[in-house]
Design a protein that fits this description.
Family: Belongs to the bacterial ribosomal protein bL33 family.
CATH superfamily: Ribosomal protein L33
Protein name: Large ribosomal subunit protein bL33
CATH architecture: Single Sheet
Number of domains: 1
Helix content: under 10%
Order of helices and strands: HEEEE
CATH class: Mainly Beta
Structural class: mainly beta
Number of helices: 1
Pfam families: Ribosomal_L33
Keywords: Ribonucleoprotein, Ribosomal protein
Shape: elongated
Strand content: over 45%
InterPro entries: Ribosomal_bL33 (IPR001705), Ribosomal_bL33_CS (IPR018264), Ribosomal_bL33_sf (IPR038584), Ribosomal_zn-bd (IPR011332)
Oligomer: single chain
CATH topology: Rubrerythrin, domain 2
């Protein structure tokens, strides 16, 4: 039960507007704010910023 509370599953959505998303886990203790990562978007064929959805 502690696993789900400490490291929840989050969806990262592309800011390029292509609808591409990644699913990952994050640590609430280390990253209490929304996660922002620069990852590869296969539809846009380039690295773009992905932001956490809630």
């Amino acid at each position: 039960m502690a696993r789900n509370e400490l490291r929840p599953i989050v969806r990262l959505r592309s800011t390029a507007g292509t609808g591409t998303s990644y699913v990952t886990r994050k640590s609430r203790r280390n990253d209490p704010d929304r996660m922002v990562l620069r990852k590869y978007d296969p539809v846009a064929r380039q690295h773009v910023v992905f932001r956490e959805e809630r």
